[in-house]
Amino acid sequence: MGAVLGAERLMSKNRNRYQRVGPDPQGRVVLPVGDLAPLEVRWFRFLNAGNQEVRFFVGRDGGGALQVAFDASENDFKLKRGFRADGAWIVNNKCETSVRLAEINQRPSGCAPVPIPFRAQGSDLVLTENDLLAGWRYFR
Q1: Nearest CA among 71, 98, 64, 73 for reference residue 14
Q2: Structural domains in the chain (count)
């Protein structure tokens, strides 16, 4: 019983780190990131009307550039362990390998997070529902 309660508490704590977002009528997800500090990472849970869920993160590297990726890697997505932020690093929760936050948009495979196409528009980050759903296979 204690193990079940402990696991439930751990799962709810991990789930609470994600801010839920959804698409607007044009199929876009617009996130305000003007106040995102260097080396800060925010975690999101995209959910559309079809109950397709995708988890991703947005970070700002030490140089001020935005980095956006799914909370999954090509190698480990079936285990659904994702990543965590540790200063200037993003750490794979399965194998404990690390990738520099500044390199997230450049590393599309292996144990690194899978990057998501995005565009910055003023102080907002704009993602499309289609680009987010391209990663749905990692979370089914």
Answers
A1: 71
A2: 1
Burial of 26 (0-12, 13-18, 19+ CB in 10 A): exposed
Domain assignment present for 12: no
Domain span at residue 25 reads 18-138
The answer to whether position 5 is within a domain reads no
Phi, psi of 117 (to 5 degrees): -65, 140
CATH number, residue 121: 2.102.10.10
Residues of the chain with pLDDT under 70: 1-15, 107-109
Phi and psi torsions of 129, nearest 5°: -60, -40
pLDDT score at 9:
46
Residue 84 · residue 94 · CB < 8 Å: no
4 within some domain: no
Would you state the structure tokens that stand for residue 77, as one six-digit string?
A: 């997505």
Confidence at residue 76, expressed as pLDDT on a 0 to 100 scale:
87
> What's the whole-model pTM score?
0.87
Per-residue pLDDT of 11-51, as tens digits, reads: 444 558 999 999 999 999 999 999 999 999 999 999 999 99
Q: In degrees, to the nearest 5, what angle opens at C-alpha 41 toward C-alphas 39 and 46?
A: 160
